[in-house]
Every structure is written in structure tokens, then in C-alpha cells.
Specification:
By secondary structure, the protein is an all-alpha fold. It has one domain (2-68). Helix 1 (2-28) packs antiparallel against helix 2 (34-68). It is built from two helices and no strands. 90% of the residues lie in helices and 0% in strands.
Length: 69
């Protein structure tokens, strides 16, 4: 269970760093097509941490269920 949390945390960190860099690049580039990519990058910056938090909650619930059995 601990390794799963560590892997999820590392994946989350890598994804967020990549999203922050891509958001910065899309904001700097002045191209009409990058507006859509910028919006998607900003949305993913919000959605990915929420999804990782939900996975963590599910892991905690699963751990409690394992301890009860």
C-alpha cells in the first residue's frame, strides 16, 4: 500500500511539473491555436491533483476495510 502511494505521488509530481511548464510555454507563445492548449493545461492542473487526492482517499478506505477483515 505504501509503495502505491509513493508511485502515485511521484507520477503526480512529474505530471504537475510538466503541466506547469507547458502552461508557461503556451502562455508565452502567441498563436491562436495555443489558447485551446493553454485552457486544457490549466484545467488539467486543477483536475489531476483532485484525482490523485480521490485515489488517496480510496486507498485509505481500502486499507481500513483490509484491517477490519
Amino acid at each position: 500500500m505504501k509503495k502505491t502511494k509513493q508511485v502515485l505521488a511521484i507520477v503526480g509530481i512529474v505530471l504537475l511539473v510538466a503541466l506547469y511548464v507547458s502552461t508557461l510555454i503556451f502562455a508565452i507563445i502567441d498563436n491562436p491555436k495555443t489558447y485551446t492548449m493553454l485552457a486544457a493545461s490549466v484545467a488539467a492542473t486543477i483536475v489531476i491533483p483532485v484525482m490523485l487526492w480521490v485515489m488517496g482517499v480510496f486507498l485509505r478506505i481500502a486499507k481500513k476495510d483490509d484491517n477490519e477483515n
